[in-house]
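Q: I have two molecules that I believe assemble together. Could you output structure tokens for the complex as a whole instead of separate predictions?
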Amino acid sequence: MKKILILLFCLAFLLKYSACSAKSSEEIYQDHITSLQNMTQQQLKEKFFFTEVVSNNIPNSIEFWTEAYCPFEKKYSYIIPYDFDLVSCEKGIDGSHGGCTTCAMSKIKLKLKPISTFYEAYDFPYKEGQMTSILKEFGITKAIKSFSQYYLSQYYLYDFNNETSDKNTIGEISQIRKNYYIKLNGIKYGPYQQIVTFGSKEYPAFYYRFKNKYYANIAGNILGPYDSIIKVYRDQGGFLIFYRNNKEYFINLNNKIEKTLACNYINITYNKGNYVYDCLVQTENKNDYYSPMSHYYNIVKNHQLYYLGDAPDPNSTPDYIGRVLVRNDKFLVPFFTYQNWQQSLYYDGNIYGSYDLFKSDLISENNLVYFIYEKGGSTYLKIIQKLK
Amino acid sequence: MKNKFFLLAFFGVALLIGFVALFSYLISNNGNKSGSEIDQKSPYAEYEIGEEEHTNFPSLISDAKPDENISISYYYAPSSFYGMCDQDPHYGYEIIDYDEKDGANIFAYSSHWGNYSSTEVNFKDTYNVKYVGLKISSGEDLIDDFYIEFNGGFSFKSSENKNFWEKFAQILPSVNACSFSDFPGGGGAYVISSKLNFVIKEKDVLWFTPEEELTVSPEINSMQISFYKKDNAGGPVMITLNNIIFEKNNSYFFSNNSLEEFSEYRHSECINSSFNGILPKNETGSISFTIESYYENNDIEKFIIQLANIGKDNITLNKENLENIPISAIEVFSGDNLNNLKSVLKIDLGESSDFRNRINGKTLFSKGDFINIDYNINKTNKVVVELTKKNIPNQNEFSIWIVGDPFIYNNNPRIEIK
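A: Yes, here they are, computed for all two components at once.
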């Protein structure tokens, strides 16, 4: 009897939200394919924003012309729908293939994501008292923290879920006057002029200053000298050292050294052998007195630059940096488009949005990311679920 | 005859000058000793330079020129709250904020964030730090080692927002306090530092040279000089930075710029002309004495006197050490404005007082342990606290309580209890 009740509840829920814990990943994926197959030409146009279709093999793939630059290239880049992967992008002649006369045109080919990298995204109208039961259906136990208007106005997102290691646990640091020592795995290092520790007890790392040069100690291996070390990371995926030598900036990722791109602000986030840094590029706009600077917000993932948006207020003091978050071992970047005051989300290669307003923290649990947003005067609960 | 007279007059004048010089020498040498009560020998041997007189640079080099590309501020650290300004004789010397690990910093300017760190410097060129001249008017024999430290800051794109990040770096605390790696995204920072080795003493100025090579560049924005005392040394200390000599292409330079250009970031009401205060003999049994108010629902409900152990050992409060509190009473006034205050609380700190009874016999275990003695105040507005001071006869033994100014609630003055 109890099982029948649960089944009935799930069926009711399924009809309303197309999401129920009783459904397998394969079934959710298949449902998505079916919904694509059932789309009309107009619905497809609204989904892919094409001006002219080159070939239509939906649900598997589609090639079309659109009024945009290639994805992640610059302002007015094409945003790939979250359920598709980019196969190719080719720049066309401005205003061709049904685009507006001044529009940049691109020929884009997309293919459906395989189930192994597929995220299903759900948007539930927000109703007081119903959120708990929806979250419960997805196996979510964490409550949603409300997000103050103040934070948003400052474009500043604190990483509530950020896991910071207790620096004191990785080794015993002692000091005799200005000489510093560290005892790690039974070995005493020093004297140094300065010691800063990173990592965890399992994966310890520290950097130090000796004769006014900086060195990193990764599992007993000493790397350096550097003029300055900005960040050191270490975990099961290896290590990363962000350092400066002769006024140039470098990233050493597991002994592969690359010069960083010319960004105004770099805040590196590292996780298990991968890194992302947000890269703000400022350019002068001499023609506009009131907006002399433009800020282009990009992320650089493993040395590949992705344009995300124009961010944030070009007249503000740049104190909003540090927004690259790690959720479920994936990079998650909320970003803002200043011109139309819209907010979007980069998560594991996909872009979600745009939204008028994030209204909660970006929370993760059980391969899910979820948050509350506002769009067109209504409030929604967004749940992004990785199927595999 | 005339020649003899002139010869006699000449020798007479020479003898007189000799006596005056000898007398002056004795006086000045005696004056040097006056600062310290403790009989310890100076570690710094004096070097006589004869008739040549200069204080800007040591005689080890033939010349040094003022350079407008070098600016150094002289924001000396207050030894305690009262030390914010030149010593007021009414209060006497204050205990220097000395830490066994980090020593004592002679520079500090107040930043936007309310912390005190280093002093501002500015270089428009690159130089090597060659000599550091310190004048130690008092306590020379108490000090063991001097260290110098420079902080540099940079933005990732140095051509833009340079000013912002430089200023950001300036307000960071010393390297001992936090990691410069925590610079949030816009840039980074680094430190260069060295122990200072004594080289020569001339005209009351002790000249040191850095043990490590120190190259300063336009990225350098602040400087600190710190010192460690000898074991169990204690007494008055007065230090002034005489000069720093920089080298470039075998020529020597020193700062020619006044500190006014940095005044935007200086929040002190006044600038000390030297670093001065009493160096505690040791840190055992130091406690802080802080007065606070708790705010709840916009009303002040509690007036707190906090005693916190900031020393190394346990302290038991007893009749003897409580006798050394330099205040006999505290009176709390309240009102909407300072011209219309009403007395709302009187706390007697004297012998047999409720205050003494509440803390007598209590032990503050190790560093960080504290006792709050709280008093209720209802529905008050602004609070003004008046302290009734009393004389402490045995000041020279440093058995005094140092009381935080009640207007500055986050102040953390200290005292050694013997």
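A: One point stands out. Chain A touches chain B through 33 residues (CB under 8 Å).
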